[in-house]
Amino acid sequence: MANLSGFVKRLRDIMRNDAGINGDAQRIEQIAWMLFLKVYDAKEQDWEWDDESYVSIIPEECRWANWAHDDKSGKAMTGERLLDFVNNTLFPTLKKLPVDASTPIKKAIVQTTFADANNYMKDGVLLRQVINVIDDLDLSDYEESHAFAEIYESILKELQSAGSAGEFYTPRAVTEFMARMIEPQIGEHMADFACGTGGFLTSWLSELKKKVHTTDDEAAYSHSIYGIEKKQFPYMLCITNMLLHDLDVPRVFHDNSLLRDVLDYTADDQFDVILMNPPYGGSEKAEVKNHFPADLASSETADLFMSVIMYRLKENGRAAVILPDGFLFGTDNAKINIKKKLLSEFNLHTIVRMPGSVFSPYTSITTNILFFDRTGPTKETWFYRLDMPEGYKHFSKTKPMKPEHFDPVVAWWNDRQPLNVDGFDKARCYTVEELSVDLGYNLDQCGFPHEEEEILAPMDLIRRYQEERASLNAEIDRVLAEITAKLGGAEL
Description:
single chain; ten-stranded mixed beta sheet; 10 strands
């Protein structure tokens, strides 16, 4: 198991010499599809052991053990022969596997995982070297398999610095805190409608695992998650992540959660718990808005996901959702209506203001965690500002956020008291009347007092400016409408 520590470095060192690999993003994508096949092969060996009638969906010649495994007899494919097989047999075969609605999930995932995958390597000898490093993993050994699940986590972390792929990775400290506060129970079903590489799913499973004591508990645990991911690459990483966490039937689907009319959802589409970090700042096709009631139709993806979450949370269900500051202070019509719905139909009991740079280097926009449940309308909302830990100016790749950085809010959580530091509110409770009537649905409370020191990346600065301008325009329209109404004229 000692060889696991340098696993990623060894792969990277080999791939650096391949002309087909251009940068970290391609390197990780290359590793990802090979890891998937290796992990899937280990799973298939288990399934064949448990079920003598099990038949793989992958044709024999394309199963990992039959083309990638090197038995050291000198017969393993390499060079041009290996490249030709991977490019002209393996990929076309796996992309076109026969899959329909009746195909079991654990078989269908092979085709969906490879639908848009690519082999970037152009040197068959180097490709053989990479395959050998991956094939040396002994995933039948429980300890090695468990240790590798941790190594896989480090591969996902590297996504943060691999270009735009960082958007799929929420720091583990954040997902663990949210799963801990939501308190998973055996028998509950949890969902993430933009699940990326599966961070919230795995944090939920880790928290729920502590309550597994019987075989019935184990079965409930295995069927407790549901994920949807729009983009192919994180979907592949997520499926592999679930298999490594012993979910033989990962209910994770390659789809877009925003392409269904929210009014069509029934009780069967709802979940006990929703944990999410919806994509924000993104753009969807204009027709996506048609899937939402006119008053909730926004051009901001995070707003649209909030509507999906509200329509898909069960009665008495619980949710924890990460949203940018723009959602809190925004006063454009859609944001106001979403917040009205949230406060009138759900109990928004807590908002944790997170320090900046949590998602660095992907974005420097400040984010928040909204905790709410479907137990009735909001009566009061607590705000808590989580300050930057002592000794940190900002988080970075070398100094990331750690689970213990949430200790202050965890300590405060069960004994809530108002807190004031240097004349600024750090924790405070607002009634729903204060939030709606007095503050006009501005949830930007207990914020960070020294915002003038904040330096945003250019695109984040532009996005912040656009949000604040839209918010100001909406406020001006509202005031003008009130003045016009008082003057006895028609509303503008």
